[in-house]
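Table S5 (text form). Sequence records supplied for joint modeling of the two-component complex.
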Amino acid sequence: MPSEQTMKAAMQAYIDAFNSGSALAVTNLYSPEATVEDPVGSPALRGREAILAFYTGSIATGAKLTLDAPIRGSHSNSAAMAFSARIGALTVRVIDVMTFDESGRFTSMKAYFAPGDMLQG
Amino acid sequence: MPSEQTMKAAMQAYIDAFNSGSALAVTNLYSPEATVEDPVGSPALRGREAILAFYTGSIATGAKLTLDAPIRGSHSNSAAMAFSARIGALTVRVIDVMTFDESGRFTSMKAYFAPGDMLQG
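The corresponding structure-token record, covering 242 residues in total, follows.
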């Protein structure tokens, strides 16, 4: 199991890579067979190609991510963070939960937000 | 599936019931066969008796909970929230993820926090 520090650093790297505009850098934080369920309740994407396409589209919206509170670890191979995505005048309030492989790459991501978490301004 | 509003109201009721000091009120927010994994990585508790005992102990510490950001919903039967638990001079930064039954009661709770999320002051 990766250390708490390794997992939190990967979560921060995700925010930074997303904001740098590199879908490839974000995708490289995932293991090859990882799943992405964003938002929770939508069909899960699986694998590098699908994940890269997803982030290419997400980043193309111009979205920028800001943590709302410090990243949380766990007593297992998972961590969670609350952040806001700002897309022009739209703010989306999200909590992401990631699980990790031994090398500290994400094996799954689940993004919790509902229609009511999308706000103008 | 309960509405986003119902799930968020139940999450807020959890915070309020905990802070009111009533372990029974917290437990009544759970379905009878619910599970509690607090923190994630510890053995899950299952069922009303175990959950009541857990909250009786937690509330006896004097802990009080404060949301760190607005509660998030999802596009499924789950919701998540970032909060801090203050226990005397100790602050524990937590993200809770709940799943729900049709009537809006919690069927599972997972609490994400690591040793490094427990801070003095």
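Note: The mean pLDDT of chain A is 97.
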